[in-house]
């Protein structure tokens, strides 16, 4: 078999034959990062604008409102946002329900623990949080 024939036998995969990116493949890392970022926003060490692309409009507005409330509370008690943040993600759970993913994460700091629950829905090729609750 000549070199020209060998080249014809070996077919290289094209971009179109590659599997499409599945945003549901493993949402665990996204849930972990998003939960950590939400707690950082509420503690005042991260800007809420950094999460705007990951939240839908009503969810972002709700987070912004809660952030402003927490900021007013810190000002009234003359507390400052922490300079050193020691956040630990203890547990992340998620389950697929129809086209959406519902997830929870337990985040702890040296002072307290928080539970973050969210619903992620596909928008284009990525997931966005359409519901977010922090306890």
TrEMBL record:
Residues 1-27 are annotated as: Disordered. InterPro entries: DUF6459. This is 3-hydroxyacyl-CoA dehydrogenase. It comes from Agrococcus casei LMG 22410.
């Amino acid at each position: 078999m000549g070199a020209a024939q060998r080249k014809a036998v070996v077919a290289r995969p094209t971009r179109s034959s590659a599997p499409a990116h599945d945003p549901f493949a493993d949402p665990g890392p996204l849930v972990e990062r998003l939960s950590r970022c939400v707690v950082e926003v509420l503690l005042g060490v991260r800007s809420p604008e950094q999460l705007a692309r990951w939240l839908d409009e009503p969810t972002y507005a709700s987070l912004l409102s809660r952030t402003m409330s927490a900021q007013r509370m810190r000002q009234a008690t003359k507390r400052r946002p922490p300079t050193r943040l020691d956040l630990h993600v203890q547990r992340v759970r998620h389950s697929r329900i129809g086209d959406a993913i519902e997830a929870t994460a337990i985040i702890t700091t040296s002072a307290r623990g928080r539970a973050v629950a969210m619903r992620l829905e596909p928008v284009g090729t990525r997931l966005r949080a359409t519901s977010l609750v922090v306890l």
